[in-house]
Automatic annotation (TrEMBL), chains A, B:
It comes from Digitaria exilis. The keyword Oxidoreductase applies. The keyword Transport does not apply. Signal peptide: none annotated. It comes from the Eukaryota. One of its GO terms (molecular function) is 2-alkenal reductase [NAD(P)H] activity. Pfam families: ADH_N_2, ADH_zinc_N. The lineage of its organism: Eukaryota, Viridiplantae, Streptophyta, Embryophyta, Tracheophyta. InterPro entries: ADH-like_C, ADH_N_2, ER, GroES-like_sf, MDR_fam, NAD(P)-bd_dom_sf. This is Enoyl reductase (ER) domain-containing protein. Residues 82-369 form the Enoyl reductase (ER) domain.
């Protein structure tokens, strides 16, 4: 940063959403523009400016690319002219998303790993490595630095803080342990099992002494599940004509915990195969995000018949556990107890395609974009 | 019982299922036959013979009238010739249903209020009033008397032990308090609200300081909800063209607890109107029982987006709480804090029509059949 004194305007590449999307999105809905950013914090404010190093591509972002008829769990991305309309949604947003509306208009936002380059906040110093919700751009003015977590293990790859040590990691950990309430010997099924969350759920389940089967969308991914992540069994769901029968084969005793990221027909087949008192932590339903007509799940009655507990969770509710989680997971990584695979796209120009690739299953492992190296 | 000495054979009217049913059932699927029953307990056994006083008609019985392709949560009723096929299901059945297969072949079984007329069991004496799973007949040989609860409040109407003091009452109490985890001020929606379970849930919610809205299928029932059971609001769902909009009107702030007995399009509309962290105790889905093609619920993703907890329960899991519940509920009834409406059909001959009436909503309040007075 020697050449960019505080207060200087620098070029700032950023990714914007050009228009809202229905159905399957295309990378063309986004555009990479170059504007400028000020590296100075407004006088007297407690904001900070961060340099974005790694940004995360996450399936839930699909919802933000659609114009909502009614408020959704996160607001849609703002195109600019829609600012006024969007104000009325404010109270429904979870905090980290609320703040960014005012500073990142027209720029996509999501979790990222950042370095502080200017700060008016006493807890955040220039040079600090942090992660939180930032812009899909090179530099971001953060008006609420408190929403960022400090990075305590920079000796591990920093990109891990978009995944195994970040939002997906905390999601897997909280969903599996707090909602799934596993016991040794439980039968666990994980869908989207090679993705950012799934690969961790499977390994946490193995560490807990469970029997774990994962599904994924290619033989390459199935191979990863069995040979890298230590799942007991794995299958390519695209090769299975009757998922109900497939699950019956892998789980003759039934499923105790289904970690749900997929929804639709997969959920339907799983419900037929759950055991009494089974648990379904649900963190996403990626199979449904691009459908204009959602799949109707016809056997929800199984929730009654088998006394199932299905519970949704969002990572925000577990933020208070983050540093505890970070220590535990960093320990597993250093001891080699958890393996982790990521799929890194290089440069903001690749970000739109990387995001869309999540929905075709192009990525192998956690998808992220390297914006800059530290 | 003076005229029927132990060991005597007496005429025994009973209700049998003639054939399995698909789609909407008709009373013709059942038949009332007269056979004989022995009033003696087999020598050396710990069985008991009971005289059935009141038998309960409950929606879940519909499932037992269908031949299951795969084991369901309760076994189908046995037609007689199907005995061998049914044996393989045994391990899946909850205990009270398992025992009866062997003694009530061809006779329908369900919860009822009974008087002990002969007993080989030291805990059950002739003249005891009990409730449990018994036959749809005049006299039943009970091989596992331990599955019956003693009746501690015979000063209240005995028929109440098929409802407010029996299985539906415990279901409402456990579902609302243990699964729903209500807080004062919560917004509560109850479907099938004038039924055996719903009328109690609404009143327990009012006692807890919640705001309660109920739906039912006739203006007469809506009137009961508002003027007898003290619901804050109630509506006739048959008069509402757009249930989503109706719920938005009654719950502008959204729903914290939805007590689910209906399923299908109602569940779908409710999911749109739940508040974050809402709870859905699910005890039945009566709208779906007679459909050959079940309604597909298209917005299960709301479970994730709103971090909902949907949890099924069956009353068996709460049997250990029964006597605590009985005392609490008997107290409410005596203090006039809980009102209760039942719909009593007279005589076993009326039992088939009374059961079918549940699915057309003919009953007003808890449906039961008086077999004999004590």
């Amino acid at each position: 940063m020697a050449s960019t004194a505080a207060g200087e305007e620098v070029p700032n590449k950023r990714v914007v959403l050009k228009h809202y999307v229905t159905g399957f999105p295309s990378a063309d809905a986004m555009e990479v523009l170059t504007g400028t950013a000020s590296l100075a914090v407004p006088p007297g404010s407690s904001a900070m400016v961060v340099k974005n190093l790694y940004i995360s591509c996450d399936p839930y972002m699909r919802d933000r690319m659609t114009k909502h008829e009614r408020p959704s769990y996160v607001p849609e991305f703002v195109l600019g002219e829609d600012l006024i309309t969007n104000l009325c949604y404010k109270s429904l947003w979870p905090p980290p998303f609320r703040w960014y509306k005012f500073i990142c208009l027209q720029t996509l936002v999501n979790f990222g790993v950042c370095k502080v380059t200017a700060s008016g906040h006493s807890d955040y110093k220039v040079g600090d490595l942090v992660w939180g919700v930032t812009g899909w751009e090179e530099y971001t003015l953060v008006t609420e630095p408190e929403s960022f977590f400090k990075i305590h293990h920079p000796e591990l790859p920093l990109s891990y803080y978009t995944g195994v040590l970040g939002m997906p990691g905390l999601t897997a950990w909280a969903g599996f342990f707090q909602v799934g309430k596993p016991k040794k010997g439980d039968y666990v099924f994980v869908s989207a099992a090679s993705g950012a969350v799934g690969q961790l759920v499977g390994q946490l389940a193995k560490l807990t002494g469970c029997y774990v089967v994962g599904s994924a969308g290619s033989d390459e991914k199935v191979n990863l599940l069995k040979n890298k992540f230590g799942f007991d069994e794995a299958f390519n769901y695209k090769k299975e004509a009757d998922l109900d029968a497939t699950l019956r084969r892998y789980f003759p005793e039934g499923i105790d915990i289904y970690f749900e990221s997929v929804g639709g027909p997969t959920l339907e087949a799983v419900l037929e195969n759950m055991r009494p008192h089974g648990r379904i932590p649900a963190v996403g339903m990626i199979s449904q995000y691009n459908l204009e007509e959602k799949h109707g799940v016809r056997n929800i009655f199984q929730v009654v018949a088998k006394r199932l507990r299905m519970e949704g969770l969002l990572v925000f509710d577990y933020y208070s556990d983050y540093y505890k989680f970070e220590e535990e997971m960093a320990g597993y990584l250093k001891e080699g107890k958890i393996s982790y695979v990521e799929d890194i796209a290089e440069g903001l120009e690749e970000a739109p395609a990387a995001l869309i690739g999540l929905f075709t299953g192009r990525n192998v492992g956690k998808q992220l974009v390297a914006v800059a190296r530290v």
